[in-house]
Amino acid sequence: MAQLGYQARDIGLSFIPQTIAFMVGGYLGKKAVQKYGDELVLKQLIALFTLSAAMIFVASQWTLSSIWPILAPFCLIAVANGAMYPIVVNRALSSAKQSPATAAGLQNSLQISVSSLSSALVAALASQAQPVTGIAIVLCTGGLWIGYILSNRQLREQFTTPDNARVVSDE
């Protein structure tokens, strides 16, 4: 953002809309889950996250004169994250009823690890922070989809391990 002429104060203030979007997402997500159920809401939030990540990736490859082409989709991701986080954590903890504290610790560790690795990637390539941010968000979206597929039995069954015994010749 400094490359776009923004001062440190402006950069700090740019986090305010994202924070508000996260809180709004949490509130709207709660209301949507009550009305439509968590499965439908989660699918919609993953779609919103994916679309927003694609917008960030495209915008990050351009030469920008303003932060808004990246900040606006980041706010949409914040809405999705604010609404998605309680759903995902609730599902993860409900699947580990015998040891919810361990599951919560594992979930937090994974979250911090992925966030740290993504931040490290962007920091290591700070001279090209804008395009690297787009790449990092696409990689995170891939991780989101992998997690969703692995947690969804119907989707998971569509993928199989290659096995030569299943190959049938048409002779």
From TrEMBL:
Highest taxon above the source species: Bacteria
Keyword hit for Transmembrane helix: yes
Keyword Metal-binding attached: no
InterPro entries reported for this sequence: MFS_trans_sf
What keywords sit in the KW lines?
Membrane, Transmembrane, Transmembrane helix
Instruction: Please give the Gene3D superfamilies that the UniProt record associates with this protein.
Output: Multidrug resistance protein D
Q: Transmembrane residues, as ranges?
A: 41-60, 66-88, 109-126, 132-150
Q: What protein name applies here?
A: Inner membrane transport protein YdhC
State the species of origin. Vibrio cholerae
What gene name does this entry carry? ydhC
